[in-house]
Amino acid sequence: MRTCTNCGAQFPDDELICPVCGHEVQLVPDYVTIESKIQEDRKRKEDEAQRRREELAKEQAIEKRKQQIRRKIILTVVLLAAAAAVILFTAVSIHLKSQSKSFSYQYKKAQNAYEIGDYQDALTYITDALKIDAGNEDGLYLEAEIYVALDKKGDAEKVLEKLIAANGDYTKAYDLLIKLYTEDKNSDAIRTLLKNCKNSDVLAKYKDYLPQAPTISPEGGTYDSLQTVTISAAANGTIYYTTDDSKPDSSSEKYSGSFRLKEGTTTVKAIVVTDKGLTSDVASQEFSIELDTPAAPKITPSSGTYTHVKGRSTGSGSSSGSLSESVSSSSADETDTDITHITVTVPDGYTCYYAFDQTPTKSSNKYTKPVSMRQGEHIFYAVLCSKEGKLGKVASATYIYSIVTPTATPTPTAIPTQSASNTYNPVDTYNSETVATPTPTATPTAAAPTPDASSSTSSSNTENEEHTGTEGNDKETDKSASENNN
């Protein structure tokens, strides 16, 4: 085989021209010189360089091709990934959209926001959740909790009331609602809530929150005597009451013990406020008290004209001497203290009040013993007062009483000067005491006796009512007392 010196191709020995490059075969070898050797080396190097360039070019072409292929693959992958992402995003969006329309999704979002303290977002989520399922009990309860966290207690109470109305066995709602009512001191709302509750567990748990109304005794009704009212309560707390038919509260009269009712119609109402600040229902009793009116007392002697003659002894001086009320003469020669007294019959259990010339009241003089007549013309009034304090009908008697001085030579015949139209009972009793009888006056032989002005005035000024002192101002005193009492 020959080798072409020009292109290096191999060809048969019998060929004279290189079938590749067409170079003639050199049959006679050239002389090898340094120059030729150098050229040969240079040519070889160039050939090698050319070959490397060609190989590099081929490699680059191959690499370029590979890169193109890779880019196509990457592009394809990217396009496929993008398409997949779009499909996935669309699927996720569809899923999320469907999830956003579900109660559980919104409720979970609200619950998570509430737990981290993001209450406003929690309210937004739970509102959206309840739009999907308005009657969901857990959703309503969470909404109430969120309102409490936002300090919107009124809204929370409304939500809980709605929840309890829908399901009376949702005990957590009772717990939270009663807590809110207690903080607001709304005991009426607690009482109403528990009264309408049918859950025995709730009632047992909050039995102290429903105090019973107090007990008022005696029972209301019509009575003929004054009544003493007592109020008691089963729950520990403070009792408040009213007697004017108004509803009691913590600003009403505080009950500290039994009290007495006056005559007339009175409505007693009472409540108990427990130590926890809870108020009971109102207890009420109506009392109608109609007391019997005492009859008019008996007054003796009866109305009439009575005269006392100074110095004349009637033989009953010892009796009159035992009386503490008397009219005595200021004359130096007066030896007799005979007086006429007024007696009132007072039944057991009654008190008597009396006055001259005006209607007596409870502030007037209290009758304890016979009362001396006053000189001149006066009306004596007396009235009985029952043990319940009710005044009765007033009795009266009019007396004309005078004291006269006899002449120097009186006749032995004594004729009473009591008017013919009145009868005087010589003896009357009061508490087993004998009342002195008036002394018949002697008829002078001279002119008719005239009252001694000076002695009458002196006797009137010295008249003594032991329990009240001087009665010179009885009219003004009794009149003032009557106005104050009535």
Give the helix/strand layout.
Elements: E1 2-3, E2 10-11, H1 34-100, H2 103-115, H3 119-132, H4 137-149, H5 153-166, H6 171-183, H7 187-195, H8 200-205, E3 215-217, E4 221-223, E5 228-232, E6 237-242, E7 253-254, E8 259-260, E9 264-274, E10 283-289, E11 298-300, E12 304-309, H9 317-321, E13 341-345, E14 351-356, E15 365-366, E16 371-372, E17 376-385, E18 391-404, E19 410-415, E20 429-430, E21 433-434, E22 441-444, H10 453-462, E23 464-465, E24 469-470, H11 474-485
Parallel strand pairs: 4-10, 12-18
Antiparallel strand pairs: 1-2, 3-5, 5-8, 6-7, 6-9, 9-10, 11-13, 13-16, 14-15, 14-17, 17-18, 19-22, 20-21, 23-24
Describe the structure.
The strands form 8 sheets. A 5-stranded mixed β-sheet has the order 4-10-9-6-7, with no helix packed on it. A 5-stranded mixed β-sheet has the order 12-18-17-14-15. It has helices spanning 34-100, 103-115, 119-132, 137-149, 153-166, 171-183, 187-195, 200-205, 317-321, 453-462, 474-485; strands at 2-3, 10-11, 215-217, 221-223, 228-232, 237-242, 253-254, 259-260, 264-274, 283-289, 298-300, 304-309, 341-345, 351-356, 365-366, 371-372, 376-385, 391-404, 410-415, 429-430, 433-434, 441-444, 464-465, 469-470. With 486 residues, the protein is α+β, with helices and mostly antiparallel strands. Helix 2 (103-115) packs antiparallel against helix 3, helix 4 (137-149) runs antiparallel to helix 5 (153-166) and helix 5 (153-166) runs antiparallel to helix 6 (171-183). The protein starts with a strand and ends with a helix. 36% of the residues lie in helices and 22% in strands. A hairpin with an 8-residue loop joins strand 14 (351-356) and strand 15.
